[in-house]
Amino acid sequence: MSKLNKTILAVLFIFAGIHVYAGEGNKFSIVLSGTQAAPRVLACKTPEFSFHFPQMAGNFKLGIISGQKSLWCSELKSVKLQKKDGKLIYTIEDNLLKEGKVTLRIAKLTDSDGFVMEVEGTNLPTGIDLFWSFGGSYAKVLSDKTDSGLKPEYCKDNVFSVEGNAFTVYYGESLDLKVVQAVVPDESDIHLSDAHKQTSPLAFHQSGKKTDAPALTGTTKLINGKLYFCFYLQNAKADYNSFMLPELFKKEF
Asked: Which of the following CATH numbers is that of domain 3-252: 3.30.930, 3.40.50, 2.70.98, 2.60.40?
């Protein structure tokens, strides 16, 4: 192959997206909202996100469960990431999904800090669950925001209020209490869990609530169709319910 052809292929590869395999550095280096100097939402090359308002306001990450087997998205066989106009598209494939795939589309919010995410399953086998976790609302500004994973020491004193498929996390000092809101898919199985036990999504979900490092975990059936998530700071223009998310996603994406 000529040097010119190699260059053309390299350029095409870059514009097609970033293809990531398990183990390839999963730092929070992608700015979804805010600026490089003052990011508000950061993402990894595989689906994991951290919120900075500007204090560390939480970590959201995903995994896949099939029976008694479970993997974090960073462990899956193939994750392709496309970045375009401030939006992210992850396409994930793995032996657990057989011939199927899951596409995640994420857009930042116009009327609030946060994002809305669409999860679309295609050609999936039965019995697959999407796992998610949220926690680590630390209420302090991190000196290195590229290292903003879900650490147990960030979870102390986090308080969660769950109402159906929505939840609120309260964090920070009592005289300066901070709040993050979230809406997750209907019929999610939501648990209070132990952030010390993150060896696998299944272990995390089954870890129990007796802990000094509380985090929220949930599972929902992956379907050949669409599911929606939203994380935001509530204000006069941003107060969302699950039935609103498809239209909100269409507007933002």
From this structure: 2.70.98
